[in-house]
Amino acid sequence: MTILTVQEALAEIVAHVERLPAVPVALDEALGLVLAHDVVSDVDSPPFDKALMDGYAVRAGDLASGRATLRVIDEVLAGQVPWRPVGSGEATRIMTGAPIPEGADAVVQVEHTRPAITGSDAAVAIETTTVAAGRNIMKRGESLHKGTCVLPAGRQIRPQEIGALAELGHDPLAVYARPRVAVLSTGDELVPVGEVPGPGKIRNSNAAMLTAQLRHMGAEAVSLGVARDDPSSLRERIERGLAFDALVLSGGVSAGKLDLVPAVLAEAGVQRIFHKVQVKPGQPIWFGVFRRPPREESGPGPAPAAASAELHSKSCYVFGLPGNPVSSMVCCELFARTAIRRLMGVEPALPTPRRARLASDHFSRGNRPTYHPARFEWTESGAAVELVRWMGSADLSATVEANAMALFPEGERMYAAGAVVEVFLW
């Protein structure tokens, strides 16, 4: 059996995972998803010349010296329209965001004005520097013009994109579908997290952790519970999981007597792409593809969470992660995340490292690249990373202090404090 490098394994995932189709979603459900089409403005923004300050709309020529007393002829609030044009010697009181009246070409901030009375008319006295045309005015279309491509296809939607889409009236909008992912833990030793473990038992922390990781990546993840260490239990749960866009299992993929997952996946028709990667922790990781037959109505019934929705993908992408929790966490971050990003249309899909300086000396030794739990932070001297105390792949508590993984290539080497290493954020 060929053991792949991390880069080779990631390349296989990219080569086999296909982007999900475009679907319409409501704007308030689009955060984190990827636009399937260009978004073009159907209006000028702003749609009219508007005031950027509370104050008075004036003619700049009336304030050549910076001082004048002008007759107030109108007041315009945001959401209203001016009733009268501004003539020479006149001003309109105006609020931020309101349309500029005809004849006016500048706005003087209210802080530079004071009320004045001239005869029977209200007036405003202005004392400021010389006022140039265009002062405190945003011209129509200055932000964008009708027909402008505001957001290109392939853009991942953040809060600022939500704001722009709302301004442009795009609700609903076309995005690549959010992947539906099933999480399945395996093992006779697992009990629910709310129970006190008996002799030889442990709580099922992996399901909760992996479900949370996948949701954090943008997927819609649901736990299928625990499959026990027998082929019939595994087969039933795996068949349910194959109704999703992806299935992530933990445990049962190594070389032990009860590591039954690869054989059951093969029986279910899942094509193995690779099994084992040169990575620490997590070498036994398994990845395969289940090609779903057309119109699968007669096939295995989907899990309840997916029963009311059409399948997104023609395939189910299956990851068998090692059962030790840190191995599961690291492999999910490196490999399952790449698949999720491919499914969602996020580019680049591959993990993107940062570079940071080690905060203290570290001696690394091993025959595989090691992804060590670490804490990344910005300091006055730049990016820094501090390794957390970590006892190995079963030491999940160490990850609570970490927000990243520091990569150390295989081999023996002393890394002095200040050495630059690659860091992958969690």
Q: Notable features of this structure?
A:
426 residues; alpha+beta; Molybdenum Cofactor Biosythetic Enzyme, Chain A; Molybdopterin biosynthesis moeA protein, domain 3; Beta-clip; 6-stranded mixed beta sheet; 27 strands; 16% helix; elongated
Protein architecture, described:
This protein is of the alpha+beta class. Helices cover 16% and strands 31% of the residues. It contains 6 helices and 27 strands. Helix 1 packs parallel to helix 6 and helix 3 packs parallel to helix 6. The longest helix is centred in the last third of the chain and has 20 residues.
Shape: elongated
Helix fraction, binned, reads 10-25%
The parts where pLDDT drops under 50 for at least 5 residues are: 296-309
Largest sheet: 6 strands, mixed
Number of strands: 27
Distance between the termini: 31 Å
* Secondary structure tally, helices: 6
CATH architecture of the largest domain: 3-Layer(aba) Sandwich
Strand content: 25-35%
Q: What's the alpha carbon Rg, rounded to whole Å?
A: 31 Å
User: What's the CATH H-level homologous superfamily of the largest domain?
Assistant: MoaB/Mog-like domain
For this entry, what is the oligomeric state of its chains?
single chain
CATH topology of the largest domain: Molybdenum Cofactor Biosythetic Enzyme, Chain A
- Provide mean pLDDT, rounded: 92
Strands ordered across the widest β-sheet: 7-4-6-5-9-8
Q: Helix/strand-derived class?
A: alpha+beta
